[in-house]
Design brief:
The structure is a homodimer of 520-residue chains. With 520 residues, the first copy, chain A, is an alpha+beta fold. The first copy, chain A, has 18 helices and 20 strands. At the A-B interface, α8, β12, α10, α12 and α18 of A face α8, β12, α10, α12 and α18 of B. Chains A, B: GO terms for molecular function: (R)-2-hydroxyglutarate dehydrogenase activity; FAD binding; metal ion binding.
């Protein structure tokens, strides 16, 4: 609901990267695409990445609507106002023109929908909470939107093993609340938790704030139920920590952005709720010192370290200037947010105290403050979490989310600052040091093609030169699909295409996403 | 070397499940298979699972040997004595009749070998340390053995991120030593660490003793280099914690037992070496109390818990009777081995002390002892680790390795004991409570087909009825391939067959393994 409200509120003032299509009345149909591309104001990748021409999928006919309405009475939506919200992504950067939104409640309904769509060559755009940042969760043209919003039931929870099984449309925050009442937590946490669905999290292989501690979804997701393009239900909904009977098929659907199948249920291993949480906000005089602090931190905090995030002085200036936040410590070139989560408060505090003594005595850290109360913890976290908001106030923002070897994580910011000089208003770096994940953001008073040309493809080449990833945690979706070769070999991309062709030979599932235009 | 010596020593006295083949002189060739099956004495699955007829692969000709010798001078082995060791598995339960063992040093050599074999329809059996337990690492007929033994170089290690990259033939124990000198450890540990190769560990998705703490290889392996059946090199050797650019292809090769590609290099995320290790050996009066102890343990030891293993009173009797070990505590129906690993010795000891106070005050635990010194730690661990050895002295052993929902883990032992009654000599249960992984072992004074008929398929049906896995950590290999349907749906197995056909259309890679005979 939060997302819908936000989108509705902004609707009248925003401009979109819009793709519209001339209609064609019957099956089968080769529609000619009329692509009208307008530049977007908002976040996400700012690089033009026009959709390819509409592929020759069928258009939805009255007969199709009859079928869907019989299958999903009251849950086959054609109301333009409701469709408006589902056609546009959270960043308001991509907008499709779908005329049908389906809201199944069961796996069997999803199966019947896909069997029908595959038979009649109708393209489908699966949609969870629609909080993705790369245009992966909205139609590009007139694809049918298949929403998991009503598939929101917890199926089982085992309080001995900590294994939760639920439908794909459960909202992450609801699952977190369900678990916290039972003394467990979800192994992932995201800023979008109030809207995002667990099925979408799995389909994008979401990273988030707890990855450093609990690892990726590839380890914590124990089982999936998936409906394939032709309607077959693939039941891999295991609730076992160990199972070496054949190939681990569920991995195909983690992070494939709904292009290989629609995730309908998830089982996931959940950690115990920590009894003690502390947050430290520290200042360092150089990035080298920050990295050394990270190493000492891993040794001394060890098993209780749950986050190691950073922001640079430019981020702090933006927080102060645009959001009127007060720097809680002495001005420094770099700031660190460290979180600990453990089972024994006194032990955790002692570990943190000893660590801080060590890094301050050696002058690796020049100033710092620690919070143990929830309100102060939130205040310190906001210095890291609100950087994105501060950037919005600074101007037109070019945003990049890259993985790099941790020792090179800040070199890209330094290089970019030198390269762009006066042409950029701000060049800032922040992100997850513990995961080697940098958020590089560059602002300008207004949209600036010359500035963009100085950034791209340089930023991708730079990342590729370090064997980095051009999309650390957001996926490729529509916007970044053609940049895949900066991080993956041609042989790998070819094999991805083979897998797509094997599982979805007609290509009806989330077309124009993830794979580059050169691979269908 | 240890494995070779052991095998050579046992060679003259053992009998094998042997498959021999009539030779055919030229390419292409449809050899008729002559399968001579003799029952086996030794460990592993005791269920007859005869190999299917030899498939129509070519036989190795002098021209092939010329090619291999030119490519790998001095490393193309045809000496029957050396081949004898490589043709038989560690349990001495399966023996092939390969006449060629290849020892490449580089990925390019592996690529050339496979390109040639694929072109000439020659089957290949990839082999690491040959410590597998399901007949997955040896030829079944005359497949060429492709050994990773000389691919044993560490490529890079990053002491900031803890990411190690190495060739596939590195022995696990050597990697552990390399890392411990640098204050890190491998995220997996196995009894076979002195012989097993990391490439084999990845290919079988090895579990082992540290899974409870550090998770499975699906999370800790960050990258793989793999040579496909046709010789293409698939470079997915990422050293990034986060990378969401397209499908995660490396997952296809983790746990697929060399049937989809040959792993040639691995990058893996390694934890810091713990500064403090403690082991507790405890007694419980019931399995219900043991499970409740496990729950309390997860809450109170939390982040420092690194193992929670169990054995029953029957295991203890075998240890006392056959190995003359002394029970370190009061006789109990169940015993637990708990290991903690942390960064602060005083904290870890205090946590353990408080936990023990709680579980003993509530009478969940009736007796216990704790070790902090290395020799005493090893002595306590041996009560768990030497059960397999004790079973060998007890008679002919029927061995099962299953995953079950943790609350049902011991019901299978109880049920089986009732079902078999006087027909079995011993029915014992032990294993990894923390992972829901039970090792069920049943002994008899001698091989007993009536006893076997009472065990199977009952044990598989029982496991399947609980949505368990009939192979928790050992894989399917040759011996268990046809039991896959007890844990996987027909749709899933069909899709596995599609993947195999896509990646290895001629089926030359490790034939007769992993997939059931009904799927080629």
């Amino acid at each position: 609901m939060a997302v819908f409200e936000r989108l509705t509120r902004l609707k009248s003032t925003s401009r979109f990267l819009r793709y519209t299509t001339s209609l064609c009345p019957a099956h089968p149909c080769t529609a000619t695409a009329r692509i009208q591309q307008r530049r977007v104001h908002g976040g996400g990748s700012e690089t033009p990445s026009a959709a390819p021409p509409r592929r020759p999928f069928s258009q939805v006919t009255p007969a199709d609507l009859d079928f869907f309405t019989r299958l999903l009475p009251g849950r086959t939506i054609t109301d333009p106002d409701v469709l408006e919200s589902s056609n546009v992504d959270w960043l308001k950067s991509v907008k499709g023109s779908s005329e049908v939104l389906l809201r199944p409640k069961t796996t069997e309904e999803v199966s019947q929908i896909l069997r029908y769509c595959n038979e009649w060559n109708l393209a489908v755009s699966p949609q969870g909470g629609n909080t993705g940042l790369v245009g992966g969760s909205v139609p590009v043209f007139d694809e049918i939107i298949l929403s998991t919003a009503l598939m929101n039931q917890v199926l089982t929870f085992d309080s001995i093993s900590g294994i939760l099984t639920c439908q794909a449309g459960c909202v992450l925050e609801n699952l977190s609340q369900y678990l916290e009442e039972r003394d467990f937590i979800m192994p992932l946490d995201l800023g979008a938790k109030g809207s995002c669905h667990i099925g979408g999290n799995v389909s994008t292989n979401a990273g988030g704030l707890r990855l450093l501690r609990y690892g990726s979804l590839r380890g914590t997701v124990l089982g999936l139920e998936v409906v394939l393009a032709d309607g077959r239900v693939l039941d891999c909904l295991s609730t076992l920590r160990k199972d070496n009977t054949g190939y681990d098929l569920k991995q195909l659907f983690i992070g494939s952005e709904g292009t290989l199948g629609v995730v309908t249920a998830v089982s996931i291993l959940c950690p115990r709720k920590p009894k003690s949480v502390n947050v430290a906000f520290l200042g360092c005089s150089s990035f080298e010192n920050l990295l050394e602090t990270f190493q000492i931190c891993r040794g001394m905090l060890g098993e209780i370290l749950s986050a190691f995030e950073f922001l640079d002085a430019s981020c702090m200036s933006l927080l102060e200037e645009h959001l009127k936040l007060t720097n809680p410590i002495t001005e420094s070139p770099f700031y660190i947010v460290i979180e600990t989560a453990g089972s024994t408060p006194a032990h955790d505090e002692e570990k943190l105290h000893n660590f801080l003594d060590t890094v301050m005595a050696s002058a690796l850290v020049i100033d710092g403050t620690v919070a143990t109360e929830e309100t102060k913890i939130k205040a310190l976290w906001s210095m890291r979490e609100r950087v994105t908001e501060a950037l919005r106030h600074d101007g037109y923002t070019y945003k990049y989310d890259v993985s790099l070897p941790v020792e090179k994580i800040y070199d890209l910011v330094t290089d970019m600052r030198k390269r762009l000089g006066y042409r950029a208003k701000s060049v800032v770096g922040y992100g997850h040091v513990g995961d080697g994940n940098l958020h590089l953001n560059i602002t300008s008073p207004m949209k600036d093609p010359a500035l963009l040309a100085a950034i791209e493809p340089y930023v991708y080449e730079w990342t590729s030169g370090c064997q980095g990833s051009v999309s650390a945690e957001h996926g490729l979706g529509l916007k970044k699909r053609n940049y895949i070769y900066y991080s993956k070999s041609p042989e790998a991309v070819t094999l991805m295409g083979d897998i797509k062709a094997m599982l979805d030979p007609k290509g009806i599932l989330n077309p124009y996403k993830t794979l580059p235009d050169s691979v269908r």
